[in-house]
Specification:
By secondary structure, this protein is α/β, with parallel strands linked by helices. It has one domain (10-134): 3-Layer(aba) Sandwich (Rossmann fold). Helix content is 45%, strand content 17%. It contains 6 helices and 6 strands. It has helices spanning 12-19, 25-32, 43-51, 57-72, 88-98, 109-118; strands at 7-10, 38-41, 76-77, 102-105, 122-126, 130-134. Strands 3-2-1-4-5-6 form a 6-stranded mixed β-sheet, sandwiched between helices.
Length: 139
């Protein structure tokens, strides 16, 4: 029986948060999802990351790290025409309805609250040392 690969949608807060952590995110994702994972993001997240360019050196380093991470994880940006909004959090929630087994990677408290209310699993950073998934049931 073929299992559906988990589909992780990456939020800006997660991508930037990972840049500040002392662990290997790819190894952590492999630990949590040994069957593999397909990573996605939404157009508004890409825009938010690109806007970090004009700030201080620390923000530029985070931006570069986030862009490299998107590439390393082979993240697919979902097409903009699939969304009815340009707000990142709303696009992420809409994207979760488009995919068959979505997990949202975020550190945003408001977004987490909204996802919990909808029963959508969340991937986040715990204790600056590892990733955890809350609400995920393997299919």
């Amino acid at each position: 029986m073929n299992k559906v690969k988990p589909q992780v949608i990456l939020d800006t807060s997660f991508l930037i948060g990972i840049a500040e952590q002392p662990f290997n995110v790819s190894a952590e994702i492999d630990r949590i999802f040994p069957q593999g994972v397909q990573c996605y993001t939404v157009p508004s997240v890409i825009s938010e990351i690109q806007r970090l360019q004009g700030r201080n050196n620390k923000d530029r380093r985070k931006r570069l790290f986030a862009l490299k991470l998107l590439e390393a994880l082979n993240v697919e940006t979902l097409p903009a025409d699939q969304f009815t909004t340009t707000k990142a959090d709303d696009q992420i929630i809409e994207a979760a309805t488009l995919l068959s087994s979505p997990i949202i990677a975020t550190m945003d408290k408001e977004l987490k609250r909204s996802l919990n209310q909808r029963g959508i699993p969340i991937l986040s950073i715990r204790e600056r040392s590892h990733l955890i998934v809350v609400g995920y049931v393997e299919r």
